[in-house]
Amino acid sequence: MSEDYWPSYGSQSGDSKIPTIGYLDWYVPRLEENRPYNLSFSGMQYEWDVKEIMDESIYEIANHHLGSLSDPRIHVAKRENVDVENIVICHGATQALHLSICAAMAISRKETKNIAVESPCYAPIVQVPQLFNYPVSKVTRFQKEQFGPWRIDKKEWLPVIEDSAILMITPILNPSGWDYHPEDRDWIVKVCKENNVIIIADEVYLDTKREHETYAPFHSLGEHCISINSLTKVYSLGTLRFGWLISSKEIIEQARRAFFTLSGMMGSPTLRIADSIFPKLDSAIIKMKHYREKNLPLLGRMLEKMGIAWNEPPYGVFGAFELPLGIDSIDFVDNECKQFGVLAVPGSMFSPKLKSWLRVAWSIEPKIFAESLIYLEQALVLAINKKTSQ
């Protein structure tokens, strides 16, 4: 029987315990097993040659950055076509979540402290508000049709939004890999504005669809919207801890004050490396396109062979599918997959409703991906045979 690793919703009122991030409690020990066929990555696997990019300046990373580097917001401003005054630079997307809540609550005109968070989600999205002891309500996105974007139920969302000060969302949904249907996105923006609700959008995967016709960062949709992004997921630079918020100047001023309170300044090594790499970010996106072109047809054919429905997102670095016969995905990864050296992510890490779902990433070199699919298929055959023989 699988343990409960999915995100914790609710309120911490009267409870001093901080909820665990169950996904990491499960995932880190599996990573330490060093399974050779790793399909569990949540972001691009792209190797930057930092020494070549920085050249002699790499020896200056321990020096103070003040006076020797331009404002780090300028890179983000140029890339996102916004003013530097609408940006706060911070230590990654997770810290940006904290700053966003601080800023949003500081200017909120609503008496309620309730925060609405969509499900499925990566646990920190829903559990960061609980560090502030704010009550959290759940709204869901679900697979309405076999193919296409996961949708929202407006009748479910409306009363929760009306009773909330903040709505926290992840436009490219983890683990499905699908962004909002444009109709749902526009409705969310409109209803939140009408109800004085500030939207915090974790957009760390949105750059995978910069050239897609439905690309629309939330900061561009209204002054009540906050966009969070970083160099981690799409650009494979998680070790830098370089992230940012984009929003209205009123919200950003509060986020800036919160950052100074929590961190004071960004680290000089981080800023120097980011300054050198920002002009070359598109090389990671080019590599991502290459991975998609080579890897996704292989995945589609394997799943078709197994009789498994595959709702392929037209962007991103991962997707999810439902295992046949109600196979428990945690048991599958811990048993059959382990037997064949494969690691993938169970859907129950994101929602209890996804116990039979599996997330697979295609953000690795095509040769390794092709080998991994051979053993994933063997693991699926074994699990299905076990299930049918019971």
CATH superfamily of the largest domain: Type I PLP-dependent aspartate aminotransferase-like (Major domain)
User: What's the N-to-C terminus distance?
Assistant: 16 Å
* Strand order within the widest beta sheet: 2-9-8-7-6-3-4-5
| Helicity level | 25-40%
What is the number of helices?
12
Please, what is the oligomeric state? single chain
Describe the structure.
The protein has 390 residues and is an alpha/beta fold. The protein folds into 2 domains: 22-46 and 282-389, Aspartate Aminotransferase, domain 1 (Alpha-Beta Complex); 53-280, Aspartate Aminotransferase, domain 2, CATH 3.40.640.10. The chain contains 12 helices and 13 strands. The protein has helices spanning 22-32, 50-54, 73-80, 92-107, 123-131, 154-162, 182-194, 249-262, 268-277, 282-305, 329-339, 366-389, and strands at 37-38, 87-90, 115-119, 136-142, 151-152, 166-169, 198-202, 225-230, 243-246, 318-322, 342-343, 345-346, 357-361. The strands form 3 sheets. It has an 8-stranded mixed sheet, with helices on both faces. The protein has a 3-stranded antiparallel sheet with strand order 10-13-12, covered by helices on one side. It has a two-stranded parallel ribbon with strand order 1-11. Strand 3, helix 5 (123-131) and strand 4 form a beta-alpha-beta unit. Helix 6 packs parallel to helix 7, helix 10 packs parallel to helix 12 and helix 11 crosses helix 12.
